[in-house]
Amino acid sequence: MNKVLLVGTGNVGSHILEFIARDENRFEWVIGDIDENRARLQCNNASIGAAHHGKHPIFHPMKVDLLNIEKTADLIKKEKPIAIINCSVLHTWHLIRQLPEDLYRKISSAGLGAWLPCQLTLGMNLAKAIKESGECPYYINTSLSCLTNPVMGKIGLAPTIGIGNVDLIAPAIITYLSQKTGVHRSKIDIRLVCHHQHWVYPREAGYQPGAPYFLKIMINGEVITDQFDTNKIMYDAVKMYPEDISFTAVSASSTIKNLKAMINDEGISTHSPGPNGLPGGYPVILDAKGAKVNLPDEISLEEAIRINEEAGKLDSIEKIKNDGTVIFTDYAYEIMKDTLGFDCHSFKPEESENLAFEQIARFKELSNKHIN
Fold first, then answer.
1. Which domain holds residue 334?
2. 169 CB neighbour count, 10 Å cutoff
Protein backbone atom coordinates (compact mmCIF):
# COMPACT_ATOMS: atom_id res chain seq x y z
CA MET A 1 0.00 0.00 0.00
CA ASN A 2 1.38 3.42 -0.97
CA LYS A 3 2.20 5.83 1.81
CA VAL A 4 1.73 9.58 1.98
CA LEU A 5 3.69 11.68 4.46
CA LEU A 6 1.93 14.79 5.74
CA VAL A 7 3.88 17.12 8.03
CA GLY A 8 1.97 19.71 10.05
CA THR A 9 -1.47 19.31 11.65
CA GLY A 10 -2.47 22.96 11.93
CA ASN A 11 -5.38 24.57 10.09
CA VAL A 12 -4.77 23.13 6.62
CA GLY A 13 -3.27 19.85 7.79
CA SER A 14 -6.14 19.04 10.16
CA HIS A 15 -8.69 19.76 7.41
CA ILE A 16 -6.81 17.40 5.10
CA LEU A 17 -7.01 14.69 7.75
CA GLU A 18 -10.76 15.12 8.17
CA PHE A 19 -11.38 15.01 4.43
CA ILE A 20 -9.16 12.05 3.57
CA ALA A 21 -10.44 10.06 6.57
CA ARG A 22 -13.88 10.00 4.92
CA ASP A 23 -12.52 9.73 1.38
CA GLU A 24 -12.07 6.79 -0.96
CA ASN A 25 -8.30 6.36 -0.92
CA ARG A 26 -6.04 3.40 -0.38
CA PHE A 27 -3.05 5.10 1.16
CA GLU A 28 -1.37 4.72 4.49
CA TRP A 29 -0.86 8.14 6.02
CA VAL A 30 2.21 9.00 8.06
CA ILE A 31 1.17 12.11 9.99
CA GLY A 32 4.05 14.12 11.40
CA ASP A 33 4.14 17.14 13.65
CA ILE A 34 6.66 18.73 16.01
CA ASP A 35 4.02 17.99 18.67
CA GLU A 36 3.40 14.24 18.46
CA ASN A 37 0.44 14.39 20.83
CA ARG A 38 -1.29 16.97 18.63
CA ALA A 39 -0.75 14.72 15.60
CA ARG A 40 -2.19 11.76 17.50
CA LEU A 41 -5.26 13.66 18.70
CA GLN A 42 -5.97 15.09 15.24
CA CYS A 43 -5.70 11.59 13.75
CA ASN A 44 -8.03 10.27 16.46
CA ASN A 45 -10.58 12.98 15.72
CA ALA A 46 -10.55 12.26 11.99
CA SER A 47 -10.69 8.48 12.49
CA ILE A 48 -13.59 8.64 14.94
CA GLY A 49 -15.55 10.91 12.62
CA ALA A 50 -14.86 8.60 9.68
CA ALA A 51 -16.40 5.70 11.59
CA HIS A 52 -19.80 7.34 11.09
CA HIS A 53 -19.32 6.80 7.36
CA GLY A 54 -17.97 3.28 7.56
CA LYS A 55 -14.43 4.43 6.75
CA HIS A 56 -11.32 3.14 8.45
CA PRO A 57 -8.29 5.24 7.47
CA ILE A 58 -4.78 4.10 8.34
CA PHE A 59 -2.93 6.86 10.19
CA HIS A 60 0.51 6.66 11.77
CA PRO A 61 1.04 9.79 13.91
CA MET A 62 4.60 10.59 14.95
CA LYS A 63 6.93 13.40 15.89
CA VAL A 64 8.70 15.04 12.94
CA ASP A 65 11.11 17.89 13.59
CA LEU A 66 11.88 19.59 10.28
CA LEU A 67 14.74 21.49 11.91
CA ASN A 68 16.50 18.10 11.99
CA ILE A 69 17.10 17.48 8.30
CA GLU A 70 19.13 14.30 8.77
CA LYS A 71 16.50 12.59 10.92
CA THR A 72 13.73 13.66 8.54
CA ALA A 73 15.71 12.23 5.61
CA ASP A 74 16.05 8.93 7.49
CA LEU A 75 12.28 8.85 8.02
CA ILE A 76 11.62 9.45 4.33
CA LYS A 77 14.12 6.74 3.37
CA LYS A 78 12.44 4.30 5.76
CA GLU A 79 8.80 5.04 4.87
CA LYS A 80 9.34 5.65 1.13
CA PRO A 81 6.20 7.78 0.65
CA ILE A 82 4.88 8.23 -2.86
CA ALA A 83 4.03 11.83 -1.95
CA ILE A 84 4.96 14.31 0.77
CA ILE A 85 2.79 17.24 1.83
CA ASN A 86 4.25 20.13 3.80
CA CYS A 87 1.66 21.90 5.98
CA SER A 88 4.18 23.30 8.46
CA VAL A 89 5.25 26.89 9.05
CA LEU A 90 7.19 28.61 11.82
CA HIS A 91 4.92 31.65 12.16
CA THR A 92 1.24 31.70 11.23
CA TRP A 93 0.39 34.74 9.11
CA HIS A 94 -2.88 35.62 10.87
CA LEU A 95 -1.21 36.20 14.26
CA ILE A 96 -0.76 39.86 13.32
CA ARG A 97 -4.56 40.22 13.36
CA GLN A 98 -4.35 40.02 17.16
CA LEU A 99 -2.52 43.35 17.30
CA PRO A 100 -4.28 46.71 17.69
CA GLU A 101 -5.96 47.71 14.45
CA ASP A 102 -3.57 50.51 13.48
CA LEU A 103 -0.50 48.35 14.12
CA TYR A 104 -2.02 45.37 12.32
CA ARG A 105 -2.79 47.54 9.29
CA LYS A 106 0.75 48.89 9.17
CA ILE A 107 2.44 45.49 9.42
CA SER A 108 -0.07 43.96 7.01
CA SER A 109 0.80 46.62 4.44
CA ALA A 110 4.32 45.20 4.30
CA GLY A 111 2.84 42.06 2.72
CA LEU A 112 3.01 38.44 3.79
CA GLY A 113 6.19 38.05 1.77
CA ALA A 114 7.91 40.22 4.37
CA TRP A 115 7.71 37.13 6.61
CA LEU A 116 9.29 34.89 3.99
CA PRO A 117 11.98 33.45 6.31
CA CYS A 118 9.21 32.07 8.54
CA GLN A 119 7.27 30.74 5.55
CA LEU A 120 10.29 29.25 3.79
CA THR A 121 12.43 27.56 6.42
CA LEU A 122 10.53 24.36 7.21
CA GLY A 123 9.41 23.70 3.65
CA MET A 124 12.97 24.17 2.42
CA ASN A 125 14.32 21.88 5.14
CA LEU A 126 11.84 19.23 4.08
CA ALA A 127 12.97 19.64 0.46
CA LYS A 128 16.58 19.17 1.61
CA ALA A 129 15.60 16.05 3.53
CA ILE A 130 13.85 14.63 0.44
CA LYS A 131 16.97 15.20 -1.61
CA GLU A 132 19.20 13.68 1.07
CA SER A 133 16.94 10.62 1.34
CA GLY A 134 17.46 9.70 -2.31
CA GLU A 135 13.72 9.15 -2.73
CA CYS A 136 11.67 10.90 -5.45
CA PRO A 137 8.17 11.53 -4.10
CA TYR A 138 5.78 14.17 -5.36
CA TYR A 139 6.33 17.16 -3.09
CA ILE A 140 3.34 19.40 -2.40
CA ASN A 141 4.21 22.56 -0.48
CA THR A 142 1.31 24.46 1.10
CA SER A 143 3.31 27.29 2.69
CA LEU A 144 3.05 30.50 0.59
CA SER A 145 4.06 28.52 -2.48
CA CYS A 146 3.84 31.54 -4.83
CA LEU A 147 6.99 32.84 -3.11
CA THR A 148 8.63 29.90 -1.33
CA ASN A 149 8.59 27.49 -4.29
CA PRO A 150 10.59 29.83 -6.57
CA VAL A 151 13.24 30.32 -3.88
CA MET A 152 13.59 26.55 -3.57
CA GLY A 153 13.55 26.24 -7.34
CA LYS A 154 16.55 28.54 -7.66
CA ILE A 155 18.64 26.20 -5.50
CA GLY A 156 17.57 22.90 -7.04
CA LEU A 157 14.91 21.99 -4.46
CA ALA A 158 11.71 22.88 -6.31
CA PRO A 159 8.51 21.27 -5.00
CA THR A 160 6.36 19.57 -7.60
CA ILE A 161 3.46 21.93 -6.96
CA GLY A 162 1.89 24.26 -4.42
CA ILE A 163 -1.73 24.69 -3.39
CA GLY A 164 -4.26 27.45 -2.78
CA ASN A 165 -3.71 31.07 -3.85
CA VAL A 166 -4.64 30.93 -7.58
CA ASP A 167 -6.45 27.68 -6.72
CA LEU A 168 -8.58 29.59 -4.22
CA ILE A 169 -9.36 32.32 -6.72
CA ALA A 170 -10.07 30.26 -9.86
CA PRO A 171 -12.98 28.16 -8.47
CA ALA A 172 -14.33 31.27 -6.76
CA ILE A 173 -14.41 33.07 -10.11
CA ILE A 174 -16.31 30.18 -11.69
CA THR A 175 -18.78 30.18 -8.80
CA TYR A 176 -19.16 33.97 -9.02
CA LEU A 177 -19.80 33.85 -12.76
CA SER A 178 -22.31 31.04 -12.33
CA GLN A 179 -24.24 33.02 -9.75
CA LYS A 180 -24.20 36.19 -11.89
CA THR A 181 -25.10 34.57 -15.22
CA GLY A 182 -27.27 31.66 -14.11
CA VAL A 183 -25.05 29.31 -16.14
CA HIS A 184 -24.19 26.03 -14.44
CA ARG A 185 -20.62 25.92 -13.17
CA SER A 186 -19.83 22.88 -15.32
CA LYS A 187 -20.34 25.03 -18.43
CA ILE A 188 -17.85 27.71 -17.32
CA ASP A 189 -14.10 27.43 -17.82
CA ILE A 190 -11.30 29.89 -17.20
CA ARG A 191 -7.55 30.24 -17.58
CA LEU A 192 -5.98 32.36 -14.88
CA VAL A 193 -2.43 33.56 -14.20
CA CYS A 194 -2.19 35.38 -10.91
CA HIS A 195 -0.25 35.71 -7.68
CA HIS A 196 -0.90 35.31 -3.95
CA GLN A 197 -1.14 39.10 -3.90
CA HIS A 198 -4.49 38.89 -5.71
CA TRP A 199 -5.82 36.70 -2.89
CA VAL A 200 -4.76 38.98 -0.03
CA TYR A 201 -5.46 42.38 -1.61
CA PRO A 202 -9.26 42.10 -1.12
CA ARG A 203 -8.89 40.46 2.31
CA GLU A 204 -6.07 42.07 4.29
CA ALA A 205 -5.32 45.67 5.26
CA GLY A 206 -2.80 47.77 3.39
CA TYR A 207 -2.34 45.79 0.18
CA GLN A 208 -2.16 47.86 -2.98
CA PRO A 209 -4.24 47.40 -6.15
CA GLY A 210 -2.87 47.21 -9.67
CA ALA A 211 -1.04 43.88 -9.72
CA PRO A 212 -1.07 42.38 -13.23
CA TYR A 213 -2.85 39.14 -14.06
CA PHE A 214 -4.25 37.23 -17.03
CA LEU A 215 -7.82 35.94 -17.15
CA LYS A 216 -9.62 34.18 -19.99
CA ILE A 217 -13.31 33.29 -19.54
CA MET A 218 -15.21 30.71 -21.58
CA ILE A 219 -18.83 29.59 -21.42
CA ASN A 220 -19.74 26.48 -23.43
CA GLY A 221 -16.37 26.83 -25.15
CA GLU A 222 -16.99 30.40 -26.32
CA VAL A 223 -14.53 33.06 -25.20
CA ILE A 224 -16.51 35.86 -23.55
CA THR A 225 -13.86 37.63 -21.45
CA ASP A 226 -14.63 41.02 -23.02
CA GLN A 227 -18.17 40.90 -21.66
CA PHE A 228 -16.94 41.35 -18.09
CA ASP A 229 -15.04 43.78 -15.91
CA THR A 230 -12.28 41.37 -14.97
CA ASN A 231 -10.88 43.64 -12.24
CA LYS A 232 -14.25 43.51 -10.51
CA ILE A 233 -14.43 39.74 -10.94
CA MET A 234 -10.97 39.25 -9.44
CA TYR A 235 -11.93 41.32 -6.40
CA ASP A 236 -15.53 40.22 -5.87
CA ALA A 237 -14.77 36.51 -6.29
CA VAL A 238 -12.31 36.62 -3.38
CA LYS A 239 -14.82 38.57 -1.28
CA MET A 240 -17.21 35.60 -1.56
CA TYR A 241 -15.19 33.88 1.17
CA PRO A 242 -15.81 34.50 4.88
CA GLU A 243 -13.39 37.02 6.35
CA ASP A 244 -11.96 34.52 8.84
CA ILE A 245 -9.73 31.51 8.08
CA SER A 246 -12.56 29.26 6.88
CA PHE A 247 -10.84 29.23 3.47
CA THR A 248 -8.26 26.80 4.88
CA ALA A 249 -10.82 24.06 4.23
CA VAL A 250 -10.67 25.01 0.54
CA SER A 251 -6.87 24.98 0.70
CA ALA A 252 -7.09 21.43 2.05
CA SER A 253 -9.37 20.46 -0.84
CA SER A 254 -6.86 21.97 -3.26
CA THR A 255 -4.13 19.84 -1.70
CA ILE A 256 -6.06 16.58 -1.91
CA LYS A 257 -7.09 17.29 -5.49
CA ASN A 258 -3.47 17.87 -6.51
CA LEU A 259 -2.29 14.78 -4.65
CA LYS A 260 -4.81 12.46 -6.29
CA ALA A 261 -4.30 13.93 -9.74
CA MET A 262 -0.62 13.01 -9.68
CA ILE A 263 -0.76 9.70 -7.82
CA ASN A 264 -3.71 8.44 -9.89
CA ASP A 265 -2.39 9.88 -13.17
CA GLU A 266 -5.65 11.75 -13.75
CA GLY A 267 -4.30 14.34 -16.18
CA ILE A 268 -6.64 17.02 -14.90
CA SER A 269 -6.68 20.64 -16.01
CA THR A 270 -6.60 22.87 -12.93
CA HIS A 271 -4.81 25.85 -11.38
CA SER A 272 -2.00 25.85 -8.85
CA PRO A 273 0.89 28.00 -7.66
CA GLY A 274 4.59 27.30 -7.86
CA PRO A 275 4.70 24.41 -10.38
CA ASN A 276 8.28 23.13 -10.48
CA GLY A 277 9.51 26.26 -8.73
CA LEU A 278 7.87 28.94 -10.88
CA PRO A 279 6.71 32.16 -9.20
CA GLY A 280 2.99 32.76 -8.73
CA GLY A 281 0.09 30.69 -10.07
CA TYR A 282 -0.79 29.16 -13.46
CA PRO A 283 -3.18 26.85 -15.26
CA VAL A 284 -1.59 23.39 -15.05
CA ILE A 285 -2.05 19.79 -16.07
CA LEU A 286 -1.42 17.34 -13.22
CA ASP A 287 -0.69 13.70 -13.95
CA ALA A 288 1.81 10.99 -13.02
CA LYS A 289 4.63 13.07 -14.48
CA GLY A 290 3.86 15.87 -12.05
CA ALA A 291 2.89 19.42 -13.03
CA LYS A 292 2.93 20.98 -16.49
CA VAL A 293 1.97 24.59 -17.16
CA ASN A 294 -1.10 24.74 -19.42
CA LEU A 295 -1.34 28.27 -20.82
CA PRO A 296 -3.74 29.31 -23.58
CA ASP A 297 -2.36 30.57 -26.90
CA GLU A 298 -2.91 34.19 -25.88
CA ILE A 299 -0.03 34.23 -23.39
CA SER A 300 3.51 32.82 -23.34
CA LEU A 301 5.23 31.27 -20.35
CA GLU A 302 7.72 34.15 -20.32
CA GLU A 303 4.89 36.68 -20.10
CA ALA A 304 3.12 34.68 -17.39
CA ILE A 305 6.30 34.58 -15.30
CA ARG A 306 6.80 38.33 -15.80
CA ILE A 307 3.22 38.99 -14.66
CA ASN A 308 3.73 37.01 -11.47
CA GLU A 309 7.12 38.54 -10.71
CA GLU A 310 5.63 42.01 -11.09
CA ALA A 311 2.68 41.09 -8.86
CA GLY A 312 5.13 39.77 -6.28
CA LYS A 313 6.53 43.27 -5.89
CA LEU A 314 3.20 44.21 -4.29
CA ASP A 315 3.63 41.25 -1.94
CA SER A 316 6.98 42.35 -0.45
CA ILE A 317 9.43 40.74 -2.87
CA GLU A 318 11.43 42.90 -5.24
CA LYS A 319 13.39 40.01 -6.72
CA ILE A 320 14.52 36.44 -6.21
CA LYS A 321 18.04 36.18 -7.63
CA ASN A 322 19.41 33.16 -9.47
CA ASP A 323 21.20 31.93 -6.33
CA GLY A 324 17.97 32.12 -4.32
CA THR A 325 18.79 35.41 -2.63
CA VAL A 326 15.57 37.23 -1.73
CA ILE A 327 15.48 41.02 -2.00
CA PHE A 328 12.66 42.71 -0.15
CA THR A 329 10.96 45.79 -1.58
CA ASP A 330 11.92 49.07 0.02
CA TYR A 331 8.45 49.60 1.50
CA ALA A 332 8.41 46.13 3.11
CA TYR A 333 11.90 46.63 4.51
CA GLU A 334 11.02 50.01 6.03
CA ILE A 335 7.76 48.78 7.59
CA MET A 336 9.34 45.69 9.17
CA LYS A 337 12.26 47.77 10.45
CA ASP A 338 9.97 50.46 11.86
CA THR A 339 7.42 48.16 13.52
CA LEU A 340 9.46 45.13 14.59
CA GLY A 341 13.02 46.40 14.42
CA PHE A 342 13.70 43.70 11.82
CA ASP A 343 16.54 45.17 9.77
CA CYS A 344 16.93 42.92 6.72
CA HIS A 345 16.83 44.11 3.11
CA SER A 346 17.84 40.76 1.59
CA PHE A 347 18.76 37.25 2.63
CA LYS A 348 20.22 34.05 1.24
CA PRO A 349 18.30 30.78 1.61
CA GLU A 350 20.81 29.41 4.12
CA GLU A 351 20.16 32.44 6.34
CA SER A 352 16.42 31.79 6.45
CA GLU A 353 16.24 29.80 9.69
CA ASN A 354 18.11 32.31 11.86
CA LEU A 355 16.13 35.19 10.39
CA ALA A 356 12.86 33.34 10.96
CA PHE A 357 13.58 32.95 14.66
CA GLU A 358 14.59 36.59 14.83
CA GLN A 359 11.25 37.59 13.30
CA ILE A 360 9.39 35.35 15.73
CA ALA A 361 11.25 36.79 18.73
CA ARG A 362 10.65 40.36 17.61
CA PHE A 363 6.96 39.69 16.99
CA LYS A 364 6.64 38.10 20.44
CA GLU A 365 8.25 41.14 22.01
CA LEU A 366 5.89 43.44 20.10
CA SER A 367 2.78 41.39 20.89
CA ASN A 368 3.67 41.27 24.60
CA LYS A 369 3.45 45.06 24.60
CA HIS A 370 0.06 45.21 22.93
CA ILE A 371 -1.81 41.95 23.66
CA ASN A 372 -3.01 41.15 27.18
1. 316-370
2. 28
